[in-house]
Specification:
With about 375 residues, this protein is α/β, with parallel strands linked by helices. About 45% of the residues lie in helices and about 10% in strands. The chain has three domains: about 70 residues, no CATH class; about 170 residues, Nucleotidyltransferase, domain 5 (2-Layer Sandwich), CATH 3.30.420.10; about 110 residues, no CATH class. The protein has a seven-stranded mixed β-sheet with strand order 1-6-5-2-3-4-7, sandwiched between helices. The longest helix has 28 residues. The chain is elongated, with a radius of gyration of 29 Å.
Length: about 375
């Protein structure tokens, strides 16, 4: 959140201060350290942002772009034929991102006979998104291809970009350039991609070619890029903490913050990331269980919420996470949901198997209702 706000959001006004020596401010010093740690470089970079209303032309002078988002292919074909019959110009645009290679954008103006009248290829920085590539293709076609008979139709297979141009709300600077650059007689058309239309296929071919040999253009750093850098920083820092706790655990020390429970479920941080992060089957009760910070006797006793850590259902000395999931007789019927994952006599292997099937683990927790907070226990 901090990286996003200082690069793209309401706090971007502080970027100038962050570019210099900001040791006079503890807040700026901390923010700069976080940005540096995440790999965000402010000097010489322009960051994608929302355009403010006062930055655009005076409202009475704004032109509402003519955008058609029809979903049927024949609508697109009819509009293209109408422009050609009127002597106008039709321009097809496309963007492409090829992993490990780069990002490209292209436009091609074609006549009714399939002849290429004009074309342009553009190479974007590798951090750019396909959305940005599609927008660059539209913007550059506006700037570089003149209309004919005061008619110009720009056809794109990016419904997202065209919807932003049409709605004219929450626009990025790139999309605002397209909307405000529309001339009299200009129109925009959504054409479904990869449906065999010659113009769209040609634009797609050129966009892929532009990845390696296009004219270089500068584009604002997208939110997706800084978000990825921030996420990688988060995992890097968590990995360092995980390794430190793991070393403490192996040395026989006392891991703080419930680290021991996590270690039993996940041999490494990657296992936790692969099965838990972004999984909509994992709710708060499962996260509490994985951390060991949950409504079980051992945890409640540790923090003085119970006189003893014993299990009130079967009388075992300690109601731990392992006992709840694998042993307690009270939950034998509900445990049928996960019985094939349990290796009797090997608690750690059983818990690791449960993490691999976290959806079934979540169902077991819901069936028992054991982790729900009861009056008097908290």
């Amino acid at each position: 959140m901090l990286v996003q706000q200082y690069c793209h959001g309401t706090l971007r006004r502080d970027q100038e201060a962050l570019k210099g020596d900001c040791e006079w401010s503890p807040r700026f010093t901390f923010v700069k350290a976080v940005l540096d740690d995440a790999g965000v470089r402010l000097n010489g970079m322009d960051f994608e942002r929302r355009v403010l209303d006062h930055e655009r032309p005076y409202p009475p002078e704004r032109r509402t772009p003519d955008v058609t988002l029809g979903s049927r292919e024949e609508w697109a074909e009819d509009m293209i034929e109408d422009v050609w019959r009127a002597g106008g110009r039709v321009i097809f645009t496309d963007g492409s991102k090829i992993p490990e290679k780069g990002v490209g954008a292209a436009y091609v103006a074609m006549g009714p006979g399939g002849e290429v009248e004009a074309s342009g290829l553009f190479k974007l920085p590798d951090y750019c998104t396909v959305y940005q590539a599609e927008a660059v293709a539209l913007r550059e076609s506006q700037k570089r291809v003149e209309s004919r008979e005061e008619r110009r139709l720009m056809a794109s297979d990016s419904r997202a970009v065209l919807s932003s141009v049409s709605g004219q709300s929450r626009m990025t600077t790139l999309v605002a350039e397209i909307a405000d650059g529309a001339r009299v007689g200009d129109s925009f058309l959504y054409i479904p991609g990869h449906k065999g239309h010659a113009g769209n296929e040609k634009a797609d071919e050129l966009a892929k070619l532009a990845v390696e040999m296009g004219e270089e253009v500068q584009v604002p750093v997208p939110r997706a890029h800084t978000r990825r850098l921030a996420r990688e920083r988060t995992w890097r820092r968590w990995s360092e903490e995980w390794s430190a706790l793991r070393a403490l655990e192996e040395d026989g020390g006392q891991a703080q913050g419930g680290g021991k429970a996590y270690f039993k479920f996940a041999p490494g941080l990657g296992d936790l990331k692969a099965n838990v992060w972004g999984n909509d089957k994992v709710d708060s009760s499962v996260l509490q269980l994985l951390s060991g910070h949950c409504n079980l006797g051992a945890y409640l006793h540790r923090f003085g919420r119970r006189d003893t850590p014993e299990c009130t259902f079967c009388g075992k000395d300690e109601e731990s996470v392992g006992h709840f999931l694998l042993e307690c007789k009270r939950w034998d019927r509900e445990r049928n949901e996960i019985s094939d994952l349990i290796d009797k006599g090997n608690e750690e292997a059983s818990l690791q198997a449960l993490l691999q099937e976290v959806g079934r683990l979540a169902r077991f927790v819901r069936l028992t209702g054991r982790l729900e907070i009861r009056r008097g226990e908290r």
